Amino acid sequence: MRFTSDQRLDDGVLERRFTLGEIPGILWTPGSASAPAPLILLGHPGGLHRMYPRLVARARHSAAEGFAAATIELPWSGDRPRSAAAEEARADLRRALEAGEPVDDGIVDRLVLPLVDKAVPEWRAALDALLSLPGIGGPVGYAGGVISIGVRLAVVEPRISAAVLFAGSFVPRALFEEARQITIPLQVLLQWDDEGNDRQMALDLFDAFGSTEKTLHANMGGHIGVPQFEGDEGNRFFARHLR
Amino acid sequence: MRFTSDQRLDDGVLERRFTLGEIPGILWTPGSASAPAPLILLGHPGGLHRMYPRLVARARHSAAEGFAAATIELPWSGDRPRSAAAEEARADLRRALEAGEPVDDGIVDRLVLPLVDKAVPEWRAALDALLSLPGIGGPVGYAGGVISIGVRLAVVEPRISAAVLFAGSFVPRALFEEARQITIPLQVLLQWDDEGNDRQMALDLFDAFGSTEKTLHANMGGHIGVPQFEGDEGNRFFARHLR
């Protein structure tokens, strides 16, 4: 892990950009911390530059509660090399949604499974590097989408103790089986009329999670309409489980 | 409204029992309040004596946020005269649930519609009396079950500005139409495996509410397993909407 730049934001949060091999990432740490800060991994749909305004807002919100936050670029997104297969699957999904057609399992599998397979080891490598830094301590939470990445991470990565998962994208059937193996506390966010997701599928996934403590927060509106107060709810959820 | 007793609880909350005509009720007000306190009506399934421990816990929780709280006995419950028709409908419902049979719309209508028709005017009369007391000011929230009473109240009573509804009982089909007319902010609590309710019906009801701000909080467990942290979530919801 190599830091490439740092700046102090006006609320005292330290923002450091880094690269991990060829993967760019960003780490935010609270301005003042007496003990090592729990770390929240911020999931997103890919494209750090495009997502930056929302990511930095989430990170500052977390930092106000004493949490560090970090994110890395997804495979085939942002400045990273593209995948022809992923672009094709994404185009097929977009076509199906725009035509109002049911989304074929095959498309979802082609789009999501290779992404999960490639991204999850990268997040775990980032976790290794981040947890070796001074001022960052366990436990660790995962927050956001891609929900399938969060599901796989929650299954394979024992350092993740709690997750706020955003049910805002299609999930391959194969990952429902993995969902049943999850036992950590979960808070699941669902936008009731998410134009890029299927409500019943999201409810079925919530039902499938093996966790005994899981809460679904369903709010009105489309994909990008998650209410501001859910940021506070996420902080309180992590405060209950990461301290 | 006639006060019949009062006591100061150890956290300073003033608990006053009253009767409104023949209807018993309880009012809790915060120990210290500089301005008139917003009022939260505490819904419950009937039986003030049996429900008292949970009601007083909820009222103290609300009082800690500066809210007054009040409740009245339901028709045909507690010390009030019984209804043979209601008892019969309740027995029919219990039999169907114990036999694992689908719950017939007719049973639900017989059980709930007369209750709503009789209870809602009583809650409104209580509201008239409560809002005329010094130290109690609008706006007003409704919190709890019977959800069908909350639905009807939210439709007909303009003084109710926000509601936390507990989806823990069957709702007559006729009330789905009323649900569509509701426009106030709602937070709906659903126990995912509520043994006395139907999950899909509750999700359909949530979908039906006309409010643009509505949030569903679904948690694991049965009817009486609502997690403690939902008390805080209810307080924060009312703090957003009643201040």
Report what the structure shows.
The structure is a homodimer of 243-residue chains. Chain A is α/β, with parallel strands linked by helices. Chain A has one domain: Alpha/Beta hydrolase fold, catalytic domain (Rossmann fold, 3-Layer(aba) Sandwich). Helices cover 42% and strands 25% of the residues of chain A. Chain A has seven helices and nine strands; from the N terminus they run ββββαβααβαβαβαβα. The first copy, chain A, has a nine-stranded mixed beta sheet with strand order 1-2-3-5-4-6-7-8-9, sandwiched between helices. In chain A, β4, α1 and β5 form a beta-alpha-beta unit. In chain A, α2 crosses α3 and α3 packs across α4. Chain A is globular and about 50 Å long. Chain A starts with a strand and ends with a helix. The model of chain A has no long low-confidence stretch (mean pLDDT 96). At the A-B interface, α6, β9 and α7 of A face α6, β9 and α7 of B. β9 (214-219) of chain A pairs antiparallel with β9 of chain B, so a sheet runs across the interface.
